[in-house]
Amino acid sequence: MAPMTRFAVEDPYQYLEGLGNYHSSEALQGAIPQVNNTPQKPPLGLYTERISGSAFTSPRDQYLQTFLYRSQSSMLHGDFVPLEIRSGYGPQTSAAPTQINPNSYFWPSFPVPDQAHWITGHALLGSNGDPVKKEGTAIWVFSVTEDMPARHIFSSLDGEMLIIPQSGALDIQTELGFLMVRQNEIAVIPRGVRFRITLPGGKPCRGFVCELFQGHFRLPDLGILGTTGLANLRDFQVSKAYFDGTIVDGVAKASDRDGEKWTIVSRLAGKPWHCIQTHTPFDVAGWHGTCYPYKFDLGRFCPLGNTLFDEHDPSLYTVLSARHHGAEPGTAVVDFVLVPPRWNVSEDTLWLPYYHRNTMQEFFSAIVSNQDPESPSNDTDKVANRFAPFGAGLHGAMSTHGASDGEMRVAREIDTSRPQKLQMDGVTAFVLETERPLALSEWAFICAQKNPQAKGRLAKM
Ligand SMILES: [Fe+2]
Fold first, then answer.
1. pLDDT tens for residues 70-85?
2. Residue 423: inside a domain, yes or no?
3. Homogentisate 1,2-dioxygenase N-terminal domain: from which residue to which, for each copy (predicted)?
4. 130-171 tens-digit pLDDT
5. Ion ligand 1, residue ranges at CB < 5 A
6. What is the whole-number distance in angstroms between the Cα of residue 452 and the centre of ligand 1?
7. Is residue 328 situated within a structural domain?
8. Measured in angstroms, how far is the CA atom of residue 445 from the centroid of ligand 1?
9. Distance from Cα 280 to the centre of ligand 1, integer Å
């Protein structure tokens, strides 16, 4: 059986395959002009539009540029004005988080709003850097119970969005096509690409978003590991073009209805804005380039690890990395690291992370990887006392962390001469490892336990 997740939610879409490839996709045959990217008259009466995700002069193997061929230019919209968002998480504010101290934090179970959609169902957990300076990153918690309102779309102008559903699924319609993203999958939406999110079967979805202000998520270099392993290029799935309309008399006509208004919500400098346009944003009949939305099934991650003795660095589990160019070599703005089901085979080795302090900050949580609807991890109404259904932790600057007393007792008595498969009870842990300390929002700070592991142990002394 192929090592991939057997998802409970069907994916009705088809995809292009391969991350980093130069892709092209036509929803209407002949929509992409041959050779000339910007012909005087593009096919089917379309307009050429370009999304530049990187500098024009980026190295050839790193540039992110895509040409779109659409029936209306997205230039045609009203003025953007500030949008006040009130949700179950309270008003969203553009104020930068300020709570920063040397403690570890733990959130046994995040509060969840009764009713929210993609625009209203976010709470900023913390951030570092500054989106205006294109530095750093932000981590958001989301919990959504309903589709985005009709004819509403969203985009982040602050950065690329790594979307990590912890449970449930998201049906994401982007300007460049659809992605169905379910628990145990991740998606990346490039900066500025507009999208609309609905919920398959109307079921709630919650999880995390890592918004990258600087650079792009890329696969880590493998160095002496060679050419395969970890997240393989071929397993990334890229959206295919979708055109909301048809061809009439040789011209691509979007299915706009008279008087129909679309609301565009965009986040810039942490602040939501909105404007109106009178045509569908999903009118891209074809596109070609390297800047596109994609997704990845975490069940396809191929872990490499300890095979004789000792515990090696968790960088072995890096799925995506955003390098920090200009910093010390090897430094990342943020790494997305997985701790997946795997075999433990190291002899005379502590099969747990040893106690350590890290110059990087470690935000950690768990994704429900068990697709069985009867699994307790899939009971999204249940408030559990650990990661499932919806908790997380943060080890800040040089805060020592490691196993609990109980875990350590068990680990010290394990027969390490016999391999053991770790299935992790239907959840897969992940870490967002950030270079700079995360300053927490007031909301996140108030609902966090501070230094809980040490408190528990000190109380027994
Ligand atoms: Fe750690």
1. 999 999 999 999 999 8
2. yes
3. 14-298
4. 999 999 999 999 999 999 999 999 999 999 999 999 999 999
5. 362
6. 15
7. yes
8. 20
9. 46
d(CA 19, CA 24): 13
The identity of residue 437, as a single letter, is P
Give the pLDDT confidence of 284-308 residue by residue, as tens digits: 999 999 999 999 999 999 999 889 9
Distance 395 CA to ligand 1 centre (A): 7
Q: Which residues pair with 427 in a beta bridge?
A: 368
> Which residue range is the domain that position 412 belongs to?
299-460
C-alpha distance from residue 385 to each of 130, 221, 357 (Å) = 34, 37, 25
Q: Are strands 160-167 and 65-70 parallel, antiparallel or unpaired?
A: unpaired
Say how many Å lie between the CA of residue 399 and the centre of ligand 1.
9
Each residue's pLDDT tens digit, 402-418: 888 888 999 999 999 99
| Ligand 1 center–CA 106 separation, angstroms | 14
Beta bridge partners of 433: 335, 362
Residue 34 and residue 199 in contact, taking contact as beta carbons nearer than 8 Å: no
How close is the Cα of 256 to the center of ligand 1, in Å?
Answer: 52
Does some domain include residue 155? no
Cis amide leading into 389 (omega within 30): yes
- Residue 407 φ/ψ region, left for φ over 0, alpha for ψ in the -120 to 50 degree band, beta for the rest: alpha
**Structural domains of the chain, count:** 1
Measured in angstroms, how far is the CA atom of residue 402 from the centroid of ligand 1?
Answer: 7
| CATH code where residue 348 lies | 2.60.120.10
Distance 48 CA to ligand 1 centre (A): 47
Instruction: Compute the distance from residue 401 Cα to the ligand 1 centre, in Å.
Output: 6
Domain presence at residue 118: no
Distance 88 CA to ligand 1 centre (A): 32
